[in-house]
Amino acid sequence: NWEEFLLFRTIVKDYQAQVCPGWYWFRDLSENTLGAWLFHVVSEDGNELVRERALDILRETAIRPASLEKRGEIRSALLQDSSESIRKAFLKYLQVIGDDEDLPAIISASSDKSSEVRKEALRARMTITARADQNDAFSLLLGSAEDISDELLKEASHFVSQVNEELLVEASQGKADRVR
Predict the structure, then answer these.
(1) DSSP at 161
(2) For the residues 6-15, what does the mean pLDDT come to?
(3) pTM of this structure
């Protein structure tokens, strides 16, 4: 019902507030319904802040789209969104739930006009790649044309101990001062 959805949308908008009354009314909402409503907000709402907050909730709960087809539609739409903050928020979401299927779209986002989106795309690509191969993820970091942020280095520190010695020696002798 429309009134229920409007209350849900308001809660999503205010979700980062210390006190957010109204969640009680949705305590029995299934994960599938919650996900469907959040993805609807992300895709259809006219308010950028509400859309970004819905993506934050999806990231924090690691809720995935109900189907692979829906996931592809969402991925295409959000990585081409006119809002830089939505593109960044979606890449952060993909860092949590993304897999090899998402990498081509993330690689495409690596050439976004926004340097902030490009940095988030590198982080998403490195995070997803590290789940399968830490050496490949570290190589991505070393080969990046983007400025390597402290946040990205911190992310890499979680898996650098699993990188092979040869690659670490190469990194210590390379041009990537920040990585050394």
Answers:
(1) G
(2) 86
(3) 0.84
